[in-house]
Backbone:
């Protein structure tokens, strides 16, 4: 069943129930607005506001956008890029594209103008929907993209080179366009996060989207009464596919435009959120704010919050132990996935397995997994190898890149993830590193995640990233970039003393105190760190830090 049928079902069964809420908490102000009330005022990006739409309104807006595209000649299989910050328009636009049989192409909001141009060309996008934050970047490239037939602007003060979404859709039919879709029809192109190079275009069918919804609901048991708090960007598979579990049962979702701990807890409290998906830094920030006394939990209504789960990166076990001390009644879960496997859930820990915290889990609902050597033969339990997954959520291909597709996708449907992992005696899988990120130091393989997890156990460490840097004698050595918690101090000698419990060959040989950069999905930006701390850049950066 195409995923668009779920939206129609929700609109039929729960027409007047709230589907989506958007909260911008940037300023303190009161008042709740429906979509219609909001449309009558001038809401600026720096003003606080709350908007909501029902399932009926959601479906009608998707239909209006679909009918607009059809009047402009869009055909099944054509591409529509979406470049917007999280907002109430994002998902109706996305589903409007899908209802036409076209392919939705969400774009990373951090892309530069040249990266946007690359992605539009790579995906063969002929239409683009963009928000006010991107006017400057789009203006730089719009004259160099003749294949783009229509620039659609969502917001006030529409630029002259674009057409207004509000004006265009105002008089479009709100009836379902009734374009016939099948499970195998192409649905979306997602771009990889680019942590291992320039982003690749990942093509998925409707089957993948529906499977991700079923996986999420099977893992976390969402019901109609659950309320999902969505903070990560919707362009990424992680946020959207976790929401799909609530979408499947008609549950409300809250889009929070901010990551401050007090904003998160206030949203949970006021919207009565029951499920919150966090990234590691956000969970750390909440705990740190509580420890400092900046947040008093008694100020919030949190009894209904039943599940906190984390994904998108390895999760330090020490963080979860700390979380459970503060929130002992929370269920905790983690999911592993990648955009090529339609986001989270192909490997899944499970709330009943918190005693295995640190593992990413076992095969998720409807998935198969294995760990293989360089010849793609399964390795014995306990040995490190490459993690491979297989299931209905595997991508169809890297769009217009047969060579890259063949490198990771086998003829029999196995997707080779590039992540190095090992399996314990109970069958639980642990990540140890990215295959391309393994440090080979003096002939020994060093796995970043193992060293990072160890260093995070130190009370003064907020975040840490381990990278390989060139060394004349050993080829590479491990360098640890350590971000120290506020109001804490840490010296190189203290780090070295702490590392005495690590085998000598695993100890980082270079200690650097600096911020750890992460992309919007929470992944450490290793390529950026390697660029910052290689050769002459390392000397210059160290001098800058020591000044």
Residues:
């Amino acid at each position: 069943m195409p995923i668009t049928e779920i939206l129609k079902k929700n609109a039929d069964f729960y027409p007047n129930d709230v589907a989506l809420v958007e909260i911008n908490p940037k300023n303190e102000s009161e008042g709740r607005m429906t979509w219609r009330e909001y449309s009558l005022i001038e809401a600026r990006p720096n003003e606080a506001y709350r908007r909501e739409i029902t399932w009926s309104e959601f479906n009608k807006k998707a239909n209006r956008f679909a009918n607009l595209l059809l009047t402009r000649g869009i055909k099944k299989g054509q591409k529509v890029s979406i470049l917007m910050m999280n907002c109430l328009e994002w998902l109706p636009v996305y589903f409007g594209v899908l209802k036409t049989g076209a392919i939705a192409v969400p774009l990373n909001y951090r892309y530069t103008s040249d990266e946007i141009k690359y992605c539009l060309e790579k995906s063969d996008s002929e239409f683009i929907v963009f928000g006010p934050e991107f006017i400057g970047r789009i203006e730089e490239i719009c004259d160099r993209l003749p294949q783009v037939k229509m620039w659609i602007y969502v917001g006030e003060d529409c630029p002259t080179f674009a057409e207004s979404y509000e004006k265009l859709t105002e008089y479009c039919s709100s009836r379902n366009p009734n374009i016939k879709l099948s499970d195998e029809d192409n649905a979306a192109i997602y771009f990889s996060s680019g942590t291992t190079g320039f982003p690749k275009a990942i093509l998925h069918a409707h089957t993948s989207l529906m499977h991700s919804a079923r996986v999420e609901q099977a893992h976390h048991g969402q019901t109609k009464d659950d309320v999902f708090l969505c903070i990560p960007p919707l362009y990424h598979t992680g946020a959207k596919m976790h929401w799909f579990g609530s979408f499947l049962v008609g549950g409300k979702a809250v889009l929070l435009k901010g990551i401050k701990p007090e904003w998160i807890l206030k949203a949970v409290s006021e919207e009565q959120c029951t499920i919150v998906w966090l990234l590691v830094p956000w969970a750390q920030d909440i705990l740190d704010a509580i420890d400092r006394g900046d947040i008093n939990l008694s100020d919030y209504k949190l009894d209904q919050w039943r599940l906190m789960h984390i994904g998108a990166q390895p999760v330090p076990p020490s963080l979860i132990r700390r979380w459970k001390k503060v929130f002992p009644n929370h269920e905790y879960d983690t999911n592993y996935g990648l955009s090529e496997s339609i986001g989270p859930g192909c490997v899944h820990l499970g709330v009943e397995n918190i005693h295995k915290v640190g593992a990413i889990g076992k095969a998720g609902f409807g998935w198969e997994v294995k760990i293989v050597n360089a010849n793609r033969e399964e390795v014995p339990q306990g040995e490190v190898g490459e993690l491979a997954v297989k299931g209905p959520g595997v991508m169809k291909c890297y769009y217009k890149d047969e060579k890259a597709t063949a490198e990771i996708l086998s003829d029999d449907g196995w997707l080779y993830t590039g992540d190095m992992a090992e399996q314990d005696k109970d069958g639980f899988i642990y990540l140890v590193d990215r295959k391309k990120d393994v440090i080979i130091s003096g002939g020994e393989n060093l796995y970043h995640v193992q060293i990072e997890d160890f260093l995070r156990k130190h009370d003064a460490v907020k975040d840490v990233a381990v990278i390989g840097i060139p060394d004349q004698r050993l080829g590479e050595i491990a360098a640890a970039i350590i971000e120290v918690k506020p109001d804490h101090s840490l010296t190189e000698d203290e780090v070295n003393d702490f590392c005495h419990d690590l085998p000598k060959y695993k100890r980082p040989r270079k200690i650097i105190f600096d911020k750890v950069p992460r992309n919007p999905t929470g992944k450490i930006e290793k390529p950026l760190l390697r660029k910052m701390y290689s050769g002459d850049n390392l000397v210059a950066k160290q001098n800058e830090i020591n000044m």
Summary: The longest helix spans residues 55-71. The chain has 17 helices and 27 strands. Residues 27-44, 542-547 have pLDDT under 50 and may be disordered. The CA atoms of residues 390 and 414 lie 5 Å apart.
